[in-house]
């Protein structure tokens, strides 16, 4: 059975403001989860609740992680950086602050989703230069922080693993690699929340071809970590009249915010081919690094689901997925 270490995003343990980061860390530890992606806003909320600076909060959280035997995988998500219209100097100053916090947390990675604003630059040289300067800033002090670059399915310039891999190769820095998420692959080439049957045209063929190319073309050493989540089929299908729709928001972003359960949670409507994607990304390429659960769901916002319950669901989901990946790989 695949033996990758399991992590979870702190926001995936609860989006309820009353569930603070320290409770989430203890819940993850008690469930046997080995690592945590710390969401910056969760750390900020903890610092405000403790009435301490975010720097002091980061040090306290790291101490708690040591005490509970939970490793900090990443600080996330450093959004809308490359090609943004604000001055690069200001973006790098903000990045410097995030990297400082990441080092206090002893995080291995700073997670950077691909830019998704409509007013960003489309110029490839600008985008690559911005990301090179970020990677260089992250390696300018010790310990070096690695940049885990994630293609969002609604990304403006980068929305597929192939886009992201091309960017990684052009940035050409040892501390710049991929964060891959099953939700983005599944909703970019297979699922469609506006379709009555939940599928894109030729969905299975497009996914199969994408995964074959991945196994053939993606260097394993450039996969920094893999995130897992499922997606709920929309009923009724997405439209601008849908109660979750917001003007100007990509339909995949709306999907992501409201309807991303843990993998194989069919009881929450999960229907993506997560097993196929995960098997290609993990088993077929021999990836032995971190696996992280990153889910978002509307039921996680009102405090009815505790971090302890969410952590157990994450572990159960991973165990079920491990079995499914192994059984399919033997067929």
Describe the structure.
Residues 25-320 form the Xylose isomerase-like TIM barrel domain. This is Xylose isomerase-like, TIM barrel domain. One of its GO terms (molecular function) is isomerase activity. Pfam families: AP_endonuc_2. With 331 residues, the protein is of the alpha/beta class. It has a single domain, classed as TIM Barrel (Alpha-Beta Barrel), CATH 3.20.20. The chain has eleven helices and ten strands. It has helices spanning 21-31, 40-50, 54-68, 88-105, 124-139, 161-171, 182-189, 203-217, 251-258, 274-284, 307-329; strands at 6-9, 35-39, 71-76, 109-113, 146-150, 176-181, 223-228, 259-260, 290-293, 296-297. Strand 5 (146-150), helix 6 (161-171) and strand 6 form a beta-alpha-beta unit. The two termini are 15 Å apart. The mean pLDDT is 97.
CATH fold name: TIM Barrel
Structural class: alpha/beta
Strand order of the largest sheet: 1-2-3-4-5-6-7-9
Low-confidence stretches: none
InterPro entries: IolE/XylAMocC-like, Xyl_isomerase-like_sf, Xyl_isomerase-like_TIM-brl
Protein name: Xylose isomerase-like, TIM barrel domain
Pfam families: AP_endonuc_2
Keywords: Isomerase
């Amino acid at each position: 059975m695949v033996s990758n270490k399991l992590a979870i995003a702190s926001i995936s343990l609860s989006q309820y403001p009353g569930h603070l980061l320290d409770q989430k860390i203890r819940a993850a530890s008690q469930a046997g989860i080995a690592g945590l992606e710390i969401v910056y806003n969760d750390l900020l909320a903890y610092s405000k609740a403790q009435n301490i600076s975010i720097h002091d909060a980061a040090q306290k959280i790291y101490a708690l992680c040591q005490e509970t035997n939970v490793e900090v995988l990443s600080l996330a998500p450093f959004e809308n950086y490359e090609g943004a219209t604000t001055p690069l100097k200001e973006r790098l100053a903000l990045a410097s602050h995030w990297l400082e916090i990441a080092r206090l947390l002893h995080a291995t990675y700073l997670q950077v989703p691909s830019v998704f604003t409509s007013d960003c630059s489309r110029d490839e040289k600008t985008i690559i230069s911005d990301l090179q300067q970020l990677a260089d800033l992250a390696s300018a002090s010790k310990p070096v922080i690695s940049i885990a670059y994630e293609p969002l399915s609604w990304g403006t310039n980068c929305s597929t693993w192939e886009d992201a891999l091309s960017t990684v190769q052009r940035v050409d820095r040892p501390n710049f690699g991929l964060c891959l998420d099953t939700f983005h692959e599944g909703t970019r080439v297979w699922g469609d929340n506006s379709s009555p049957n939940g599928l894109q045209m030729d969905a299975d063929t497009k996914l199969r071809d994408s995964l074959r190319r991945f196994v053939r073309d993606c260097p394993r050493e450039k996969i920094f970590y893999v995130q897992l989540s499922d997606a709920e089929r929309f009923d009724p299908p997405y439209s601008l009249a849908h109660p979750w729709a917001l003007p100007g928001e990509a339909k995949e972003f709306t999907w992501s915010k409201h309807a991303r359960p843990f993998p194989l949670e069919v009881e929450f409507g999960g229907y993506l081919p997560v097993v196929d994607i995960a098997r290609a990304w993990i088993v077929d390429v021999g990836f032995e690094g971190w696996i992280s659960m990153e889910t978002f769901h509307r039921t996680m916002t009102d405090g009815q689901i505790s971090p302890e319950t969410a952590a157990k669901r994450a572990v159960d989901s991973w165990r079920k997925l491990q079995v499914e990946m192994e059984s399919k790989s033997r067929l």
